[in-house]
Amino acid sequence: MIGNLNRKLRNRLSDGDWLPICTTVGGQNAIAISFDDGPSPCTTPTILHLLARFDATAAFFLCGERAERYPSLVEDIAAQGHAIYSHGYWHQRMDEMSPDAFARDLARTEAVLARFRPTPSPYILRLPYGSGHDSARVHAQLRSWRDDVQIAHWSHSFEDWTLADNCDSHATLQIRCDDAIVTALADRGFGGSILLLHEDAIGSASALSGAIAPLLLAALLRGIARYGIKTTTISASTDCSTLSRFVRFKAVR
After folding, report:
1. Which residue has the higher pLDDT, 135 or 53?
2. For this chain's UniProt record, which GO biological process terms are given (predicted)?
3. If pLDDT is split at 50, 70 and 90, which confidence band does 238 have?
4. Helix (H) / strand (E) containing 78
5. Please, which pLDDT band fits residue 15 given cuts at 50, 70 and 90?
6. CA-CA distances (angstroms) from residue 8 to 16, 140, 153?
7. Angstrom distances, CA of residue 26 to CA of 12, 62, 149
8. Does the chain have fewer CB atoms within 10 Å around its N or its C terminus?
9. Is residue 244 part of a domain?
């Protein structure tokens, strides 16, 4: 019992290193859609078409390596006015990187993304795999790189990288995506959520991986239109008090 209490305290206290973490957006009639791992020619063009068709907005957390490989897709995202943020260069777990490698990865990613949009401040990013969002050491390394870093986490994940597992057809995948949206919309906590989706998820072995995001997004946009839910941007957290740097009052999953 004492050991569990000590672990919980360690996850809540720091030496002033905790950064703000964004997990929700204001109001029950809005959600924020976010995509990790892009850009990808398998997904980005269709995603942008769907967002434009439904007059919706999204935040794209891009991997530097993919952004460098597909610059025209990043240009298209920026041209449509969607937010572009960092998701690391190689999509490596940041809680397993050395401080030097950590800083190089972040700097290299921003050097790529800065070609397409101004460097944001506060500097919102998403950690690959969500790795280290609960680690004071990772927060300290982020703060030493840029003092204005804020972590964009999420409050609803579709775990979409699993939807094509053992899936034998596009039609079956469509059913799974539709069911995932029905379940999400029935959740009382859905309104105000930051939603986590993936573009052609890194590490997925399924041949249908590239079809997941377009199918899921289409079902999502149809669903929120029926419920009168709008899309909004991920805004910087306003909880930047001195005390919040030392104590986290709310656990983040």
Report:
1. 53
2. carbohydrate metabolic process
3. low
4. helix 71-79
5. low
6. 17, 18, 20
7. 24, 24, 20
8. N
9. no
Domains held by the chain: number: 1
Distance CA 224, CA 31 (A): 9
Q: Dihedral through CA 199, CA 202, CA 207, CA 208, nearest 10?
A: -30
Taking the C-alpha atoms of residue 18 and residue 33, their distance in angstroms, rounded to an integer, is 25
pLDDT bin (cut points 50, 70, 90) of residue 201 is confident
Q: Per the structure block, which two tokens stand in for 54?
A: 């439904």
Strand, helix or coil for residue 214:
helix
Mean local confidence (pLDDT), 46-75: 98
Query: Per-residue pLDDT tens for 61-113?
Result: 999 999 999 999 999 999 999 999 999 999 888 888 888 998 999 999 999 99
178: its two tokens: 């539709």
What does the block give as tokens for 164?
């094509």
Domain membership flag for residue 102: yes
What is the reported pLDDT for 253? 59
Answer yes or no: is 181 within a domain.
yes
CATH of the domain at 227: 3.20.20.370
Maximum separation of any 2 CA atoms in the chain, in Å = 55
